[in-house]
Structure of Haloacid dehalogenase-like hydrolase domain-containing protein 3:
Amino acid sequence: MARQLQIRLMTWDVKDTLLRLRRPLGEEYATKARAHGLEVEATTLGQAFRQVYKAQSHSFPNYGLSHGLTSRQWWLDVVLQTFHLAGVRDAQAIAPIANQLYEDFSRPCSWQVLEGAENTLRGCRTRGLKLAVVSNFDRRLEEILVGVGLREHFDFVLTSEATGWPKPDPRIFHEALRLANVEPAVAAHIGDSYRCDYQGARAVGMHSFLVVGPEPLDPTVKDSVPKEHILPSLSHLLPALDCLESSTPGL
């Protein structure tokens, strides 16, 4: 008789999986600008940020580390370019705003723990699972996790800045497996990105769950992900894990 699968390691994405910003990013940028005497619409800044972030990530992936940048320099440049695209051309006026935003987003008070996160992490611990973070975040993540009270749940934290490998690069997942000393067949990853989280983990042989929001799923994603791997909220994870373990033969 085949043994039942027993997951031993669960790796976690962070942003929009466990944490999210307390306020929309455009509002944060607009508030800081106003404090420095600049009036810029929050919606304009939000739209500009999305364009700049996409372009910056393409030109200088993983915080520009391979181009000699630090993550702080990378983010300050994103802020400068965002305001420039939103119509503010005075870089000197933006510099103190950029520095303030970088510091503010380092603080736990800027972040909100998503509903169900703590109970789900506690439930995973009760089952005896090893837990780890695998995130395309920068060096500020450890401090943020400590500040919001989640760091204690994890055996270790891997960021793309620290490892040099952003998801979906298989090397960051392999490093998590190495540190946990488990095979991919008994590990699962949870995240909100189809490409970086769901596909990235499955490409190395791990199981994976996709956290989705209230908006409709992209049809391509919906057709590619079995419904039992889709989590409408984190409270759905433990039942989904039970289903996975009962339906999959073990090693």
Strands lie at 9-12, 19-21, 111-113, 130-135, 156-159, 187-191, 207-211, 230-231.
